[in-house]
Each structure stands twice: as structure tokens, then as C-alpha cells.
Amino acid sequence: MNKEKKEKRFSYPLLGWILLWTAFGVGLSLLFKFRGVSAPWANGFAPANFLIFITLIYYLTRERFRNFLAQRKEQITRNIEEAKQAYEQVSQEHQKIKSRWENLQKELERVEEIIQKDGELERNKILEETQRQIERIKNEAEFTSRQELKTAQAQLKTEIIKLALAKAEQILKQELTPEKDTEIQEQFLKEVAGGELG
User: Fold this and answer.
1) Confidence of residue 77 (pLDDT cuts 50, 70, 90)
2) Average pLDDT, the chain
3) What is the pLDDT of residues 85-124, one digit of tens each?
4) Burial of 45 (0-12, 13-18, 19+ CB in 10 A)
5) Is residue 35 situated within a structural domain?
6) SS3 assignment for the chain
7) Does residue 55 surpass a pLDDT of 80?
8) Does residue 173 form part of some domain?
9) How many domains does the chain have?
């Protein structure tokens, strides 16, 4: 605080002298110029006035300029820190997203494997069921064929017996006379009686 006050006390008198010197130089230069007087030493006032002006601006704005630079430096430092934090957050989010993506890919591969295994199991089940149906239909067809064959054989035997009986009856009717009929009956009774005795 005391240093700042000393600098301000020092700069005001100096500022007054600089302004006075600048005004004197500008006035003298204008005077010689308007009068048309050529004074080589008067030409030295222009560079001197410029240097005085620059010095004046420096003394008037040095604290503000220093404060501006300090504030700008703080702001840039703060912006860099915020950018670093934002970069770290983005990097963390990127890592999270990358990790999630890798997990999703692994999960997708696992689901594909499960679907493939389930598909194979389902296919095997369907094949086994189809095989069982084929065996059942085959067995039923074989059973039905055997039954139909037995039925056909029985019907054929019945037809053969009927035909044989009909043929035998026809032959008997043609060859059987009343005398032969009596003879056959007697012979049958003898055989039956002989079989009972023996």
C-alpha cells in the first residue's frame, strides 16, 4: 500500500513537469512554424515530444497495464486449468464409452453364441422329434400292413374254403348216389366204432 502511494505521489509531479515540457515544446514548434522561422534546433522538439508522450502514456497506464496483464495471465491460467479439467472429463467419458462399447461387443458375441447353441439344440430337438415321428409312422405302417395282410390271408382262406366246399359239394352231388351215400355212412360208423374200441 505504501509503495503504491509513493509511486502515485511521485508520478503526479513528474506528470505535471512532462505535460508542461510537452506543451512548451508543442507551442514553440507551432510558433516557429507559423512565423515561417527556420530553426534547426526546433526540429528536435518533434522526436523529443514523441518520447515525452510515450513516457507520459507509460507512467499513466503502467499500473493498469500491469493489472491487465496480471488479470489476463490469471484468466489464461484459469482457462488452461478448465480446459485440462474438461479434457480429463472428456477422456474419462471416452474411456467409459469405450469400455461400454467393448462390453456391448462381448455381450453381443455371447448372445450370438447362445442363439447359435439354442438354434442347434432346437434343430437337434426337431430332428429327434422328426425321427421319432418317422419311426412311429413306419411302425404303424408295418403294423397296418401286417394286419391287412393277415386279414387278406384270412379272407383268402375263407374264400378258398368256400370254393373248395362248393367244388366238393358239386363233385359229391355228381358222383353221390343213394347207394353210395349209404355205403359211406356205414363206413363212417365203422370207423367211429372202431376208434372207440381201439
Assistant:
1) very high
2) 77
3) 988 998 899 898 888 888 888 888 888 888 888 888 888 8
4) buried
5) yes
6) CHHHHHHHHHHHHHHHHHHHHHHHHHHHHHHHHHHCCCCHHHHHHHHHHHHHHHHHHHHHHHHHHHHHHHHHHHHHHHHHHHHHHHHHHHHHHHHHHHHHHHHHHHHHHHHHHHHHHHHHHHHHHHHHHHHHHHHHHHHHHHHHHHHHHHHHHHHHHHHHHHHHHHHHHHHHHHHCCHHHHHHHHHHHHHHHHHHHHC
7) no
8) no
9) 1
Measure Cα distances from 50 to 30, 45, 147 in Å. Answer: 15, 8, 133
Mean pLDDT over residues 138-155, rounded? 87
* Grid cell listed for 125: 430337438
**144, part of any domain:** no
Residue 33 within any structural domain of the chain: yes
User: Which residue's entry shows cell 439344440?
Assistant: 121
Print the domain residue range for 84. 2-127
Q: What is the pTM of this model?
A: 0.34
Grid coordinates in use for 152?
387278406
Kindly report which listed range (3-7, 62-66, 92-96, 181-185) carries the lowest average pLDDT score: 3-7
Amino acid at 119: G
